[in-house]
Design the sequence.
């Protein structure tokens, strides 16, 4: 059996260590190199005791690999991705650098000119449920943001089917690990525990990813998405509650409409092993550590609004797990390889 | 100084003990009697160690009082409230029994015929920010539900001013104490911690309170509210995120519109000491144990939607504190009496 | 490859579902039958959404299996275990029924006569680090309690080496899942979160397990253990802090003594893959979902007391993982089979 | 009525804002000045929204006051305290600078020579339950550390009565606010939540305070205290579990001994309104926001060891509340003035 050698650039953040956890368990990939400037020279298991089973030293530069995951911040990520691609290494980029097709939008949101616009054409938005065949054939995957994953999967079936008006509300509740590993006042335990708050009301960087992907599903009527994220007192998980108005005459009322809606979702995702349609509201805790996305589509009885709720683990389906799922496709492996562990509950 | 004698019926739930905590600190009211069937005969401070400073025994029947708070469940509450009123005792009812003016709606939501429809005319919805003068003159206050308090206060200024279309989304995130003191699978620590979920998608009982009160503010155009509550891993607090579409030409765009919006809210609440308009998104934790409602109104930069976020402590401004505020008005006391302690933070 | 068919009796508690999670991932065992009276007839994945990948219906009676795990409560467990053994099925009992060798102690702690004293001789205390060879040869393993696992592993090296006086303090801090899945006032989210308390001060049932096992390590001087458990606001994990007085002249002072102590522990556990000796205090979170026990032995600089801290996941190394580890030994498999997933962190 | 003007130096930490919360509610003291270098010039309520009811601007220098609380770190605190005392202002120092009578011990623990040894004689250790009359007469109170408060109050009665051997174990569990307001990796939400760990095993700075104060109670036999603090996933609260061996023949066995023990504690604290002796293990949550210390003394049934558990709110009885209690004594006010609000529960 031919084992693929994988590497992680910037392993020392939460996305990096989650990639390490998943790749270590992958039966057909070997994690052979991890980098991290601040911790270079230290054993991975010394810095992160839960990874003591992985016998690797954190390096300053990536070693010899066949495929690389970059967990660098935006802009810096492009800088490391470009030479890797030139050396023929396949890349999964966890940053925002290759997610948006529109360089002007990138510049507006990230405040810098796009660092490598020539790669945007070959980069594939790494959401296998929408772009599986493109991912299979590419050498550069832009792994989506955590919020967009939950929102797009919740909305794709109804957007594609033209069942809703373009005006959409996305109210997301994220665990604190989404804010990264660097301590800040806003993620200090004493200030976050027993607290919930909205943020990003001035415009969140993940919004254009949502708009771009939903727009591709229904080109003739661009969606208008109002997106408000909330910091929730939990470590992992994103719950996304989406609200939309059904297009005239497109959704049957009552229980029958509800059944049709569920069937639409089940059909849409029938070949996608990491999406499950639920007949009750999903709990983020049921996805803890797993790559599942749980979706509950419903029609509000009092107003007829479409309400769709999705739950993911932001570090797995919202980041590292999704990346491994894409990697499996790139390598011609079954999509679920190494990703079948149930969630850890409770 | 004439001290008013107050009593609490069913002190053994979370609303009951929060009333006890607040009334014990009130300088012009003396808590003289508390009842609770399951714990009758026991010292209050024995069952609830944090209340050991209150020297009262939990009784089966209410003693001699001038004013009574009923923390009984709906239907049972009306049964105890009616005889109290007949004896001339003023009543603040914490249950849903006298909140809705429409008895058919009550029956639809609570599954029983209204237990005392003849009292609905005199009952006042106990939200002082909207009904202060009526509360001053009544003998029966129906203290609002926790969710409606957060939602109505967030929306009242723009609804009254006719600034938004009637289609409104209310996405609420509540701490677990809102589910009461009786242990259930859904409030078991191990299942709630590190989890968030939506519930009540089939229609929540608090919705008609919101619709009724917003409807009174703008009679010619009844609002249509889609309301989804979420169970959040925290003990206290409700964060309410409201979404609406500005009515045509009613809201100036950009920073100027934002300023006008803030000024509108400040004007609306300028004589209301328990509402504060914030220039950044509020945190529920900043209201812990206090009667404040913090509101942040804003316009989404990408879509122009109105987004208003409010934060309250569900057991204080969402229940017991609001009741004491109403009691102050009924007794001719300054509205803030006994309610000025800052939130306990962090 | 010959696959062993495994079954779980009473899958509906936390130990039961954790066994299901681990057995489902085991490469050489197939989980073929799960029982649970209250949920009989329902799909496992319907009751526990995180287990939806396991296609089993919860049954009233156990199907055909080669090996069975009983997650029944004490006394009831013996009643189901006896007939299984008679049918030649190997059994891992998660209850207390076969842990104590002294039937009088059993009766004193559990308030009932021992239900099957004739089996005590063949039953092996399922702590592989102390009883590996006996486990290999037995048909009945009594899987230890969660507290005893953390305490015994922390103390075994120094007790066996005779390094400490028999007077030992064991101060344990457990997550709430140790209290089981049945909701109670004491495990209600609102009462547990932001709270820590001691319990079992009148004598905890797990104490005699600790005393029995430490006594076997140092027969001439029976240990006297004072054990106080604490309920900690977290879902999983037990941190055990043990205090003892070094026997005269047995422990060198200062840094050299510390090094000798660490070397003693490393030697003791060198062939035991699930114990790791740490050079800094362990965190329960570094064991989340994994079978590791992390131990940090040290000498208090101010008083010369021995202080040993251990961390485990109470549902894994403290219950289900330990049982699978024992099963591996019983089946002649490598001890680590199916148990090598790193902890899920953060 | 003559109102005392109070000031807080370094209001921007958790002890500082808790002092502000309590002083704002004090009926006979007016908080007139607060300082804080990093936030100088800003409104207090802008930086700390829960204190918006206090109309003060954070200053660089303390204004005109009669009494001052210094919440500066050790060493820096002495530097600001000395000139205040010289100006005749009474001072309550929240730092460690004047707690230890032994300057060598101070230097060993804090790594700097004592900054003002000439003041040590007049400084009084601010634990009113042990030093009430000295506090009444002093101008400089050294408010104890949070851990020492919980430990000393738990042990004082038995140490003073000579009921225990000098060898004492103190196992403390603290909420995260004890670590202060500055964000660090160790207090980052994602790393602390669902985790418990020991720290300070190499010797914690609070240990000599415990030893000093217990030593004063029983001069002929200096106690030897092994102290291990634990970081617990909660915001506020310290639970302290103390273990000691009864001195020969000093404690009656069985229920009668238990009763005698409780009576000893009740007698010891009968004139102390902020200590309550409990007949069941205390919960930190029952002290949330209050100045109470709850103590449960008991004898372990299996080993006869004395086990005493105490619970406090580390920011109130462990810091700011204790300081206000001392201030009341210094000002000749009733000890409980401004400190009678019940805990906020749940």
Sequence:
């Amino acid at each position: 059996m031919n084992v693929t050698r994988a590497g992680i650039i910037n392993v020392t953040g939460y996305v990096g260590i989650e990639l390490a956890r998943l790749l270590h368990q992958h039966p057909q990939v070997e994690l052979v190199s991890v980098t991290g400037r601040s911790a270079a020279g230290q054993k991975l298991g010394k810095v992160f005791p839960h990874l003591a089973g992985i016998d690797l030293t954190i390096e300053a530069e990536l070693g010899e690999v066949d495929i690389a995951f970059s967990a660098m911040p935006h802009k810096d990520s492009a800088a490391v991705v470009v030479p890797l691609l030139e050396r023929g290494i396949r890349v999964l980029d966890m940053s925002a650098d290759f997610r948006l097709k529109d360089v002007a939008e990138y510049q507006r949101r990230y405040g810098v000119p796009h660092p490598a616009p020539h790669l945007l054409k070959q980069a594939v938005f790494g959401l296998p449920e929408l772009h599986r065949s493109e991912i299979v054939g590419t050498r550069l995957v832009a792994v989506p943001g955590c919020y967009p994953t939950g929102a797009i999967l919740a909305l794709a079936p109804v957007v594609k089917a033209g069942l809703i008006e373009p005006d959409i509300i996305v109210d997301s509740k994220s665990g604190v690990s989404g804010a990264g590993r660097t301590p800040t006042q806003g993620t200090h335990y004493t200030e976050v525990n027993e607290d919930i708050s909205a943020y990003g009301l001035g415009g969140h960087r993940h919004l254009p990813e949502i708009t771009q992907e939903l727009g591709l599903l229904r080109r003739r009527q661009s969606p208008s998405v109002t997106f408000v994220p909330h910091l929730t007192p939990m470590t992992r998980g994103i719950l996304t509650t989406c609200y939309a108005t059904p297009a005239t005459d497109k959704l049957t009322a009552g229980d029958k409409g509800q059944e049709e809606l569920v069937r639409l979702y089940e059909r849409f995702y029938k070949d996608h092993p990491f999406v499950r349609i639920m007949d009750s509201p999903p709990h983020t805790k049921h996805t803890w550590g797993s790559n599942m996305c749980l979706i509950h589509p419903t029609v509000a009885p009092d107003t007829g609004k479409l309400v769709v709720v999705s739950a993911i683990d932001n570090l797995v389906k919202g980041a590292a797990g999704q990346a491994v799922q894409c990697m499996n496709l790139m390598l011609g492996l079954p999509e679920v390889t190494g990703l079948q562990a149930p969630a850890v509950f409770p």
Q: What stands out?
A: Residues 139 and 274 of chain A are 23 Å apart (CA to CA).
